[in-house]
Specification:
single chain; 442 residues; mainly alpha; Growth Hormone, Chain: A; globular
């Protein structure tokens, strides 16, 4: 008994020392700031709801229609608002208090989910209901993203900004694990009703946390210029600067070719893995596990040279990993191999996007953060929406593994080609130097 108690005390002492070590503080520096912790929790809960809804809606529509095309449609309508509304919501994030914009959108998400759960529980839901409500939810999510991204630099000192951006990305990527994991038992037992109710709870937490934020943050809107000119300011910032433009377009190709797989997973789960809806959820969880791991690892990188090299290597792995998942599904039919491949897919794609977000936040001024975030969201969100729709339609005629492998190979070739393009080659070699930071005067 004494030996057991002594061992337990030593274990607690070791854990305490580990948690208080400089290494841990290096990876969690931004979480020491109260408002950042509050926003981080709100984002984690909202992202968990969003990814859980992608799984629950996708499987429900697939079960109702037996068509991957309808899965693509519902995923498309959830993502296309990032093209349709984000340019305006980026402007709102610079014109008004960002925390109020954020809280208002969480309230819309919550209301949408209550209605969706009610339709499912009363048995009155039809496919078009789910498609329409996914558009509402996606519009609110599209408004949250530029507001939340623009708010982050105001919650932490400049020295902790890169860590804050990386940890925020960890909420988005890790929620791929948390959201689907939370609803997987419900999909396997009680069906989608419980899953939608749980997502309602996630959005409620996000709204409460957003209301607790104390920091006020707005951008800089030139009142002497027209609305359209102010709206275009973010687009001009992106396209005037070669390195920023290169980062955005690499993210565009990455999202379209390696990350638009959500509409393919239901048919992959059913036709190749014999796992039905639970298998869809497990694959998303595996992607989330890999994503969370890589985002947390990258949060501790301080060297610009290391960050630049990591950008290249995770880009290469992002091209390889969809092919690995395709091989696991098409040749073996093994859920174990498919999950392992999905972990690699999640780690590589999330790592690439974490570095992309970090570099963009590093080189733009606060006055246009909301509008630049809106432009960025239009590029990647629009691409993912369109390619998910296309993939869903094509998957009714061509095996999902073939589509996955094709996208990965094309992106791999793009990364290799980008070595010849000076702006991206400079990043791969030395990262972002201080003199590359874009100022308002530029």
């Amino acid at each position: 008994m004494t030996f057991g108690k002594t061992t337990a005390k030593l274990r607690l002492m070791w854990i305490s020392q580990l948690l208080s070590s400089d290494a841990v503080r290096r990876y969690t520096d931004a979480l020491s700031y109260r408002d950042y912790r509050t926003l981080w929790t709100a984002n984690l809960s909202a992202h968990a709801a969003s990814w859980a809804l992608i799984v629950a809606r996708g499987w429900l529509v697939f079960a109702m229609s037996d068509s991957s095309l309808w899965v693509g449609v519902v995923t498309f309508t959830a993502m296309i608002p990032r093209v349709l509304v984000t340019p305006f919501t980026g402007y709102l994030s610079d014109r008004f208090d960002r925390k109020k914009v954020l809280a208002s959108m969480f309230a819309i998400n919550l209301s949408h989910n209550i209605l969706l759960a009610a339709l499912i529980m009363t048995g009155t839901a039809e496919v078009w209901h789910i498609v329409l409500l996914s558009l509402v939810d996606g519009s609110a999510r599209a408004t949250q993203m530029p507001a939340g991204q623009a708010l982050i630099p105001n919650l932490v000192p400049k020295s902790a900004l890169l860590n804050a951006v990386a940890l925020n990305q960890a909420t988005q990527q890790g929620s791929r694990l948390i959201g689907p994991a939370a609803i997987a038992p419900l999909l396997a037992t009680s069906g989608p009703e419980g899953a939608f109710l749980l997502c309602t709870g996630f959005y409620a937490i996000s709204l409460i946390q957003a209301l607790r934020l104390q920091t006020k943050s707005t951008g800089e809107i030139d009142k002497n210029q027209s609305f359209s000119r102010n709206l275009l300011e973010g687009l001009l910032y992106v396209y005037r600067h070669p390195q920023l433009r290169a980062i955005v377009f690499m993210a565009l190709f990455h999202c379209g070719l390696t990350m638009s797989f959500e509409s393919l997973l239901p048919t992959l789960s059913r036709q190749h893995l014999n796992a039905e809806g639970a298998g869809f959820s497990y694959l998303m969880m595996a992607v989330g596990a890999g994503a969370l791991f890589s985002a947390l690892v990258l949060a501790g990188i301080r060297s610009e040279v290391s960050r630049g090299r990591a950008f290249f290597y995770v880009g290469i792995l992002s091209g390889v990993s969809p092919a690995l998942l395709a091989i696991a599904g098409a040749t073996s039919g093994s859920m174990t191999l498919a999950l392992a491949s999905a972990v690699i897919l999640g780690a590589s794609t999330a790592g690439f996007m974490t570095l992309t977000h970090t570099m963009i936040q590093q080189i733009i001024p606060d006055g246009v953060r909301g509008r630049v975030a809106g432009v960025y969201s239009v590029h990647i969100g629009g691409t993912m929406a369109i390619i998910n729709l296309v993939n869903g339609g094509v998957a009714d005629y061509i095996d999902a593994p073939t589509i996955l492998a094709f996208g990965g190979i094309v992106f791999l070739l793009i990364v290799i080609w980008s070595l010849k393009y000076p702006p991206t080659r400079e990043i791969y070699v030395g990262g972002l130097r201080q003199n590359q930071v874009i100022t308002a005067a530029d």
